[in-house]
Every structure is written in C-alpha cells, then in structure tokens.
Design goal:
alpha/beta; Rossmann fold; 2 domains; 7-stranded parallel beta sheet; 6-stranded parallel beta sheet; 23 helices; 47% helix; binds uridine-5'-diphosphate
Length: 504
C-alpha cells in the first residue's frame, strides 16, 4: 500500500468511522478487534482512547501500522486527577478500589473536549470527516458529539443478547419480580415468556440493580443515551442465541447487528497473545509446555481483568486444583498487584505443582491459551468476552460468576447452551458494594476438586457438553467467515452508514 499522503484522493471517498471504547479491558479488547475488522473492509477507522490505554496496546498499534491497516489511534487526555482519581488510573482495572468505579464512570464526559478538539483539526492525510460514531454504551456523552457532527451513533454492547433481553425484562418487571421473590419460599422465580427455563433469584436481580441512588442515576443516564442511539452492535452471533437476538431487536426497535465472536479476528499468535496487555509470562515457554500436554487435558482458571479474590479463596482454589490431579494454568492477578498476606503460600504452591501446573502472575494471553488444543476446560468468572472466547474455541466451562451480567451469562451457558457446569456461588456483588476482605466468594477446595472432575470428565453428560461446545465452535467460525451471519452483520452496519450518508 502507498503512504497515507499518497492515498489522499482515494481516502476522501472512503467511509470513516470513529470508535470510542470504554477504558476497561473487557470493553477495549473487542472494540480493538472491531476496529481491525472494519479496517479490513476498507473503512478508515479512528480509535480514540487515553494515553495509558494506548500504551497498553502498543503491540497492536504497531502491528496495525506494519500491516498498513487504515486505523489511526488517537490519544485523548483524561484528567483523572481533576476528579480525585489517582494518577494514571485510566482503566477500570487500574483503580485501587471498586468504590472508585462510579467516580471513574462519572468522569468519562471529560473526554469530550479532547475528542472535539481532535475533530476540529484539519486532517493532514486527507481523511474525510467521520460519518459514523461507534461508542461503548457507557460512553453516553458521545450522543451529543454525534448530534453535533450530524452522524449516526451506534452503540457497541459488550454482553450477549440473552443478557440484554433478560436485563430488559428484569427492568420492566422489577417491582413484580421483587415482590414475587419475597413471597416465594425457594427465593427464586421463572422469568416470564422465555423459551428456556430461566430461574432468577435475588442473585441475578440484585446483581443488575443497585440500591445506591448514585448508581441508579448513572444507569438511567446510560439507558437514556441508549434509547437515542441509531443501532446496536453486539459481540455475539445469531446461531448462538437466535431467539434472543430477535426479541432484543424487537424490544429496542432498532437494528441490532451481530458482529462476533470478535476474538476470531485472524492474527498471528504473538499479536493475539498481546490482546489487551502484554503477557506476564514468557509465551514461548508457556506454549511449549502446552504443546507437551495431552489434547483436551488442561484446565484454564481465569477471572478476567477486574475480579480479585481474597487470599483465603485463592488458597482454597489452589488446593482444589492440586487435588484434581489435572494439568492447569491458573491466572492470579492478586499476587502480582499487592502483597497479600500469605502470598508465600503461592511460592510454595508453585513449587509443589511444578511441571503439572502453571501460575501466571498478572496478565495471561487468554484467547491464545483457549485456542490451544491441550485446553479442555475453563473455570471462568463468566465475563462475556471470556465466555465467548471459550465458545469460539469449543471449550466447556465451569461457571463462577462474581458480579453484574456474569450471573445471567452463567444461566446462558448452563441452561440455554448447556456447555457449562455451575460452581454454585450464591452472593452477588455490585461494584462499590464490596469492602476489602469481605469480598469472599466461598468455594471450598473440595468443591473445586469436584467441579474440575465434572468439567473435565463428567461421564455421558460431560461428553455431551463437549460435543455441544464443538458444534457451537464450528457455528461461531462459520458466522465470522465471509458470507457468515456476523460477517454479514458487519457488512450491514457499513451499508447502513453508507445509506445514511447519502440521505444526510
Ligand atoms: N484477558 C486476558 N488476560 C487476562 C485476563 C483477561 O487476555 O489475564 C482478556 C480476556 O481474554 C477477555 C478480557 O480480557 O478478552 C476480559 O473480558 P471479560 O468480559 O471476560 O471480563 P472482565 O474483565 O470484563 O470482567
């Protein structure tokens, strides 16, 4: 490809999309994949985020530049100190306490000025003005920016349509649900009018609501901004949840486009391993170890980017993994980040399991690990990206949700898709509702051992689960290939914007 300056005339004819992700790994990662997918369809893409987040994805930025993909990464100054957040805390996982999550989210509109300043600069390479803004649903302030630019705003939704639709139902019937839950002796009720038996308890209901008025106000702002959006992109595929795609589209009255699993964006293993952040382990050694393991024998244990467990819980989990006798990779962020009491236990544990288990202290190349044929099971917190990455790779999961959408995601894996086994966690946690060491989700070592056995073996039931997971993997891949449902979904987004541009 020619240099950008040489391409001046062709660029002016191309569509230019502006992407604004939420600064949290679980939201940034799929939007980076989306940016690259759009760029491979001849779209000019501006990806706007803050300096810390850009430096974290430097390998991806470099790779995009080397492959001449038309993506520009734009730095937006985020004045965290002005709102009392610690210096450099430009991503949710960098916040020292979950109590700072709401102040962080409330500070997001501060990105508006730097973004608008960037948009006012005349483009040295002849890129036309953006004709579409795709923003994370939490970046509600972008609604005004799109309005000023007179361009459509599409929202990018992290979770599945199953979650989005159930969440709508719970919202709509909140008072009745709460009354029914109080009255029912089992403390759970069936969500109405669904094709699957989705039994919710206080767990699911209170995980998506907060009684804190500040949180409620924030959620309401998001809801209003969502209503004004022109369409919704969902990181999922129709074949996974056809009924829910249809109903969610009907309920919102907007186009809802499937564009996932975005993690299937094709790239070299080193780049895939650097999704989100640079790996905390020598990838060569890790994959050499995986190459030596029996196909489908390894358990991956990872709780995403934000969840942190207490030392007491880590010890139980470790003992359970050890007793399971299975090879494992265990991602432990807690030990890398803070000196938790008892962290010497970790060093002893590592010595005991040497050769059979690998502990990654910090960031793991998760999507790449899940794609290795040695990995046969995944103990997950049910973050949507993690779940979908497992689906895309045909890996069955043990579901251990902690907060928000994760409880409903668990129901999708277990009750609808039937590719998951439950770890049985009762307590929901709302961001900001936790205090230090009280954040204990009590799963004993015996439970961990039993669950791992059920996940990795599990008799006929286990075989059927694995069979279903492989079928879904094949459907996911077909969806992303040229002509597949998600491939078409992205094309429909482009066509929609192109048509809108003609009208404007
Ligand atoms: N992830 C990773 N390495 C880690 C932890 C997480 O690559 O050590 C990635 C994971 O593959 C997923 C994202 O970070 O793409 C986490 O998103 P998810 O929705 O699963 O959970 P969240 O972090 O939002 O709770």
């Amino acid at each position: 490809m020619n240099s950008e300056a040489d391409d001046y005339s062709s660029n002016t004819k191309r569509l230019h999309f502006l992407l604004v992700p939420l600064m949290e790994q679980g939201h940034m990662i799929p939007m980076i994949d989306l940016a690259r997918l759009l760029a491979t369809r001849d779209i000019l893409v501006t990806f706007a985020t803050t300096p810390v987040n850009l430096s974290r994805i430097q390998p991806i930025v470099d790779r995009a530049a080397a492959s001449a993909l038309p993506i520009r990464f734009v730095e937006l100054h985020f004045p965290v100190a002005d709102v009392g957040l610690p210096d450099g805390c430009e991503s949710v996982d960098l916040l020292p306490s979950t109590e700072l999550i709401l102040p962080f989210l409330n500070a997001l509109p501060l990105l508006r000025d730097p973004l608008e300043a960037h948009l006012r600069i005349s483009d040295p390479f002849g890129w036309p003005k953006p004709v579409c803004l795709i923003s994370d649903n939490q970046q509600h302030w972008t609604a005004d920016v799109a309005r000023c630019l007179n361009i459509p705003r599409l929202i990018f939704h992290g979770p599945s349509c199953f979650f989005l639709y159930c969440n709508l139902l719970i919202n709509r019937h909140r008072a009745e649900l709460e009354a029914a839950l109080e009255a029912s002796s089992g403390g759970s009720i069936m969500l109405p009018d669904l094709p699957h038996p989705i039994r919710v308890s206080n767990r699911e209901v209170s995980a998506v609501f907060s009684s804190d008025p500040d949180w409620s106000k924030y959620m309401e702002t998001i809801r209003v901004a969502e209503e004004s959006a022109d369409g919704v992109l969902v990181n999922s595929f129709v074949e996974l949840e056809p009924w829910y795609f249809e109903r969610y589209g009907e309920a919102t009255g907007k186009p809802v486009w499937p564009v996932g699993p975005l993690s299937l964006y094709k790239e070299e293993i080193e780049v895939k391993a650097a999704r989100g952040r640079v790996s905390s382990i020598d990838n060569n050694l890790l994959f050499q170890w995986l190459d030596k393991q029996v196909v489908g024998s390894v358990v991956l244990v990872s709780f995403g980017s934000v969840i942190r467990n207490t030392m007491a819980q880590l010890v139980e989990l470790g003992h359970g993994l050890e007793a399971s006798g299975r090879p494992f990779i265990w991602v432990v962020k807690e030990v890398a980040e803070r000196q938790v009491p008892g962290s010497e236990w970790v060093a002893e544990f590592e010595k005991r399991v040497e050769g059979r288990g690998i502990m990654i202290r910090g960031w793991a190349p998760q999507a790449a690990i899940l794609g290795h044929e040695a990995v046969g099971g995944f103990v997950t917190h049910c973050g949507w990206n993690s779940m979908l990455e497992a689906v895309a790779m045909g890996v069955v999961m043990a579901t251990w949700p902690h907060l928000y959408d994760q409880f409903l995601n668990e129901l999708l894996a277990v009750e609808v898709l039937k590719i998951g086994v439950v770890v049985a966690v009762e307590e929901p946690k709302m961001f900001g509702a936790e205090k230090g060491d009280e954040v204990v989700v009590k799963v004993s070592r015996g439970d961990v051992e039993r669950i791992v056995e059920r996940l990795m073996v599990g008799g006929k039931e286990g075989e059927e689960r694995r069979e279903r997971a492989k079928e879904l993997r094949d459907k996911a891949r077909t969806a992303m290939e040229e002509g597949g449902s998600s491939w078409k979904g992205l094309q429909d987004v482009i066509n929609y914007v192109s048509e809108r541009q003609k009208i404007l």
